[in-house]
């Protein structure tokens, strides 16, 4: 037998339950807005161009554009289209860019955990150090928001063998690390279970634009086509989740934001047919479904 993660069994799409989202809708959509801070002169970070010797001013400044400019322009767009989002927050942002976090809080956006900084991977840490990373990020959100976050996305989608266990034990209800399904899936842990909510690696500006080198129009058209195909697919009665992952230093560049505007407006115009929401609200609604309806 091949090694197996042991977190969830195989479940074919053809065997899924036909529950519904609010309003008898079959497609739930959420925007995951990544607010990230990076160390200067060390650590990890996406690259606009191949990095040179540290300090890598070009790539650091490119990423910092998102926190200073791009994220605020994205906020304006979300306000114009009346779209909520789930903020995937590096806890270092509270000290680095508090005005940006404040702006999302004022909108009522959900704040989910996204580690301390995207300059590190939790998967490389011994279990006690990984537990401390989760605890520190969680405590910062609790102190600033007045309540603990319920969801977690690991920096770089990096998990150790015990990450789901540590998250569940730290009080998390859901995680966004696994992209293996279009529905929420229960994952087992050593002390209970945690819900895996789909987080996209296709409808995501980093793999699309940074890795595959897709253009702004190509990315926007991908979102429109993904949305249209899912609307058609839901004729089978099976509820789906469509996530859209955005990073302000990428999508907040004016010409890319122009293309994103077109895609999000297309989705917003169909809000009577779909449920545009947050990842946390998806978790809450899943808890109203009968036991056994979530794979």
Characterization of the model:
This protein is an alpha/beta fold and 295 residues long. The chain contains ten helices and nine strands. It has helices at residues 57-81, 93-96, 98-107, 127-145, 163-169, 205-211, 216-233, 248-251, 254-268, 279-286, and strands at residues 27-35, 86-89, 110-113, 151-152, 174-175, 185-189, 192-196, 240-246, 275-277. Strands 1, 2, 3, 8 and 9 form a five-stranded parallel β-sheet that branches. It has a four-stranded mixed β-sheet with strand order 4-5-7-6. Strand 4, helix 5 (163-169) and strand 5 form a beta-alpha-beta unit. Helix 1 runs parallel beside helix 9. The two termini are 23 Å apart.
Q: Which structural class matches the secondary elements? A: alpha/beta
User: What's the number of extended β-strand segments?
Assistant: 9
The total count of helices amounts to 10
First-to-last CA distance: 23 Å
Mean pLDDT: 97
SSE run: EHEHHEHEHEEEHHEHHEH
- Poorly predicted segments: none
Major sheet description: 5 strands, parallel
Beta-strand content estimate: 5-15%
Helix content: 25-40%
Shape: globular
Keywords:
40% helix; 9 strands; four-stranded mixed sheet; alpha/beta
């Amino acid at each position: 037998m091949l090694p197996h993660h042991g977190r969830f069994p195989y479940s074919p799409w053809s065997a899924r339950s036909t529950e519904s989202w609010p309003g008898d809708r079959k497609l739930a959509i959420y925007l995951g807005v990544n607010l990230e801070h990076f160390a200067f002169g060390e650590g990890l970070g996406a690259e606009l161009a191949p990095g040179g010797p540290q300090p890598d001013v070009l790539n650091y400044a490119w990423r910092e554009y998102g926190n200073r400019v791009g994220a605020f322009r994205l906020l304006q767009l979300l306000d114009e289209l009346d779209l909520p989002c789930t903020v995937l927050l590096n806890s270092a942002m509270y000290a680095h860019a508090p005005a940006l976090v404040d702006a999302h809080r004022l909108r009522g956006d959900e704040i989910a955990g996204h580690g301390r900084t995207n300059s590190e991977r939790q998967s490389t840490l011994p279990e006690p150090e990984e537990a401390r990373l989760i605890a520190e990020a969680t405590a910062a959100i609790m102190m600033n928001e007045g309540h603990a976050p319920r969801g977690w996305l690991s920096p770089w989608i990096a998990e150790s063998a015990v990450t789901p266990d540590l998250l569940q034990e730290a009080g998390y209800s859901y995680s966004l690390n696994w992209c293996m399904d279009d529905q929420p899936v229960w994952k087992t842990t050593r002390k209970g279970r945690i819900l895996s909510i789909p987080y996209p690696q296709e409808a995501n500006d980093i793999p699309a634009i940074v890795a595959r080198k897709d253009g702004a129009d190509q990315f926007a058209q991908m979102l429109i086509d993904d949305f249209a195909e899912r609307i058609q697919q839901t004729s089978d009665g099976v509820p789906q989740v469509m996530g859209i992952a955005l990073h302000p230093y990428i999508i907040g560049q004016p010409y890319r934001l122009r293309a994103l505007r077109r895609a999000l407006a297309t989705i917003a115009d169909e809000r009577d047919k779909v449920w545009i929401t947050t990842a946390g609200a998806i978790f809450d609604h899943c808890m109203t479904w009968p036991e056994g309806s979530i794979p």
